[in-house]
Amino acid sequence: MRYPFRGFRIWTCRYSVCTSAAPDQWDAAIPSTRAYADVLLLHGWGDRNALWGLVQAWLSLFQLFKPELMVLDHSPTALLAARIAQIKTGLIGNGFELPPATNPLPAFPGFSWASDEKAAESERIAVDNANAVARAFGGSPITALRDLFDVEASLLTSFPELDHYGARPGAKYVGPLQGQPACEPTTWPEGQRRIFAYIRPDTEGAEAILGALAACGASVVCFAPGFTQEQLQRYRTPNMRFSSKPVELKPLLQDADACVSYGTGGTVANFLLAGVPQMLVPKYVEAHLAARRVEELGAGLVLRGTQTVESVTIVLNKLLTNAHYKQRAQAFADRHREFDPTKTADEVVLILEQILSKDVRNDRVVQLP
Predict the structure, then answer these.
(1) Structural domain spans, the chain
(2) What residues contact 227, with CB distance under 8 A and at least 6 apart?
(3) Percent over 70 (pLDDT), the chain
(4) pLDDT at res. 341
(5) What SS3 string covers the chain?
(6) Tens of pLDDT along 60-91?
(7) Max CA separation in the chain (angstroms)
(8) Would 10-175+341-356 and 194-335 be classified into the same CATH topology?
(9) What pTM was estimated for this model as a whole?
């Protein structure tokens, strides 16, 4: 890893969609979440007074630290503030976080309620509120949300096949920025087939999935954060090992026969890069879009609707016994055999260094009224 930034002031921000909707409100919100604009409206952009306060908070921080470069990972409110303050910006994120720069931004693909007309309607509201705030701080208005993504660099930390909107011609894909903190080491318990599972209590059909895993006789390592020991007790068998803390994946990847998860991006990418087919149980829009891509690759199966132990067992057996899914997952792994996450990190650093080398604008931070 190279560290070329001595003497520069860089601000990094990740996932700063400032919440106005609590996580337990998402189930009710999903049917009205047609496009990226709706995500913004749910998280502060639907009320221009709230958005003004959020942007003012960011601008106050900019006044204090005077960053010369903003590096943003799904931080749209910080992005709006950086545009107002005319601060150089580099964006990194997956396909969901960096939507295609169309006008309007596209509706989420694959949902019956997500029409282009409704997406455009939501975008008009978001743009109007953003422009009201921008004018209040002396910033330039935007004509569409895509203007926000017109920055010095926009890097997709994904693969074209896993882009939530589908592969985009001309987009800069650098691959996932993978990394894992210190995790608990673990080994496979006894069992002929080996399954890694990542299940949370709010995963759709969690009890049916755990019941099917416990009954299948395979060797199972299950990362199950949020469950109590009492909740897991009924599923404990000599073949099933639970952990409430992240486990070290590297020793498990090459021997796994299947991965079961709710569609989190890092888990999906890690196991596909190892050629492991997936059974996915998506809950949120982003996970549904990711699961759809895996399904289209032929590298996995998606559980939809109400599930029972028997129905999950049927899908799991299909995934384990039909060679097609393993072959398609392995084909993905073969295409990306040269992928090295450390090289991805180096490439991102090099691009950021190039941005900094061009006309640093540290004297153009907006003055607050």
Answers:
(1) 10-175+341-356, 194-335
(2) 200, 201, 242, 244
(3) 88
(4) 86
(5) CCCCCCCCCEEEEECCCCCCCCHHHHHHHHHHCCEHHHHHHHHHHCCHHHHHHHHHHHHHHHHHHCCCEEEEECCHHHHHHHHHHCCEEEEEECCCCCCCCCCCCCECCCCCCCCHHHHHHHHHHHHHHHHHHHHHCCCCCCCCHHHHHCCCEEEECCCHHHCCCCCCCCCCECCCCCCCCCCECCCCCCCCCEEEEECCCCCCCHHHHHHHHHHCCCEEEEECCCCCHHHHHCCCECCEEEECCCECCHHHHCCCCEEEECCCHHHHHHHHHCCCCEEECCCCHHHHHHHHHHHHHCCEEECCCCCCHHHHHHHHHHHHHCHHHHHHHHHHHHHCCCCCHHHHHHHHHHHHHHHHCCCCCCCCCCCCC
(6) 999 999 999 999 998 999 999 999 999 999 99
(7) 67
(8) yes
(9) 0.86
**Dihedrals φ, ψ of 366, to 5°?**
-65, 145
Sign of CA dihedral 339, 342, 343, 348: positive
CATH topology for 194-335 is: Rossmann fold (3.40.50)
pLDDT score of 344: 86
| 13 — pLDDT class (breaks 50, 70, 90) | low
Give the CATH class of 10-175+341-356. alpha beta
Alpha carbons within 13 A on the beta-carbon side of 148: 28
Instruction: List pLDDT tens digits, range 302-332.
Output: 999 899 999 999 999 999 999 999 999 999 9
Cβ distance 67 to 355 under 8 Å? no
Residue 209: both structure tokens together: 């999935």
The pLDDT of residue 312 is: 98
The answer to whether 152 and 169 have CB atoms below 8 angstroms apart is no
**CA pair distance 218, 201, nearest whole angstrom:** 22
